Amino acid sequence: MSASVEIAVPKPIKPLSEATILFAGDSGDGMQLTGSQFTLATAFAQNDLATLPDFPAEIRAPAGTTYGVSGFQLHFGSVNIRTPGDEVDLLVAMNPAALKVNLPRVRRGGSIMINVNSFKPHNLKLAGYGTVNPLEDETTLKDYQVFEVELSRMTEEALKGRGLDRQAVDRSKNMFALGLTLWLYSRPLQPAINWLEQKFAKQPDLQAANIHVLKKGYHYGETTEDFIAQYEVAPATLTPGVYRAVRGTEAIAMGLVAASSQSGLQLFYSSYPITPASELLHQLSRHKNFGVKTFQAEDEIAAIGATIGASFGGNLGVCATSGPGLTLKAEGIGLAVMMELPMVIINVQRGGPSTGLPTKTEQSDLLQALYGRSGEAPLPVVAASTPGDCFYAAYEACRVAVRHMTPVILLADGYLANGSEPWRIPQVHDLDEFTVAFAQKPNRKVEGKDAFLPYVREESTLARPWAKPGTPGLEHRLGGLEKEHETGNVSYDPENHQFMTQLRSDKVARAAWHIPATSVYGDEEGDVLVLGWGSTEGAIRTAVDRIRGRGHRVGAIQLRYLNPLPPDLGAILSRFSHYLVPELNMGQLIRVLRDRFLLPFVPLCKIQGQPFKASEIEAAIVALPENA
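RESULT FIELD:
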């Protein structure tokens, strides 16, 4: 009798224009790694994409609990993708807690892939299910397509005899899940294999084991009868160019390095570790080949102090923090305002106040960025709007700082910093010009002798000269006490203080002269104008597209320059009847807009540690009077 051979019968492939996947499990289950590798394969498949990593706030949350769940959401498609998705099409749940936390995010009729081996009484109790197993009751999952996969058992079987300990075997189950989902959505395996070969180059046993389990998961999809079809998402139509998947922190780092290279200034970066800004220190420390100097300070105050010193010394001084760290830096930023030194302070915002929600996103530091210093201490504030835009926002923040001799605050948030998207790598000649002119000679006559006065102004920008310490003949003194006009001498004269305060304010206001014309997305005039800033751009534009598809005249503006505001903003506002301002806070930009323009702006506030869904903004637009 001849031996029989099992041959996988090809399954039908169903085309999709877009899909949203969420990987979820314990923080030790490798969900961020799994999601990032699926993202890499999706980038190789030339899809447009947006991601939302969702980290637990607890550093050592007990395994199996709901507050220890880590998630990675990815929205990809052949269409224009701007958000990580309103609803999830496929949830990969590694344990009961992951199912409990993320089930509300799955659309009705969507799919759930479950590691059935983890649904044991102890884990069910930890997740808050008690004695009820959601896989066995008749209500919890009745509206979804459920795939019960023995991820843990099949991973153990696949790795029998390889000499790995139980912990290493258990950690490999995410590779089985990755292989299976790659098959399900017709993604290539090779990018993940290449990554594993590099990751475990010095650990050949782990390298071979993970690649083997990855392939086993892929082949399981081909042979099992549980999955009757595959899905395929065609490549997106993108502007020609060279692309890479980029996270916000990577883009900020590259933007700073580009600014250093284009200006000829050495980049000095100082920070104290704080979530979610810490990753920027890791990124910049890898760019020593560009002359980047990184410094991990003992605290936030030391970090801003070192940055001030670097800028005084003629370097491109940059520091970064999150939430409460900006509060600690406030006195140092005020000193930089008084000294009129160019530097960039990056705030990767998170949920607050205090330690708040350290791994969740929020936009609640705008008013602190605008006003959170003693005295009258205005400075420019700019904001990035997408992970890729973080590159351009960081580059522009450096240009503004040097051009106007002022500290600049760059606002990002946890969603932007950790999220990723396809990014078209710019050509060097496409970057805005960035020239630096240090003072080289005395600029005034004092008692008949040549002298250097540190507060003589350039007429168009009101910027004072930047003199490197040690330049012959340019000895000067800076400090935190009020300065006399031009000489820089300490002055307690009342009229001089008012004059200098107004002068510093006028200098920041003149930054508006260099702001390009504001772009309106959608209709240039009409019923509703949606005004946003920062990471709300994707959800706003998606909502505007949907409303315009119904015949309504709706436009949107995403403000990069928050101080000063664009000079043409008032003219644009006059062309619309209603105004909606979505923010991930209790309403901060709207206070600034109401104060400036005295118009009936309508707030849309969300402060849940999660970004807006496009559907939330869409519903708010519809609820406005002329669209109801």
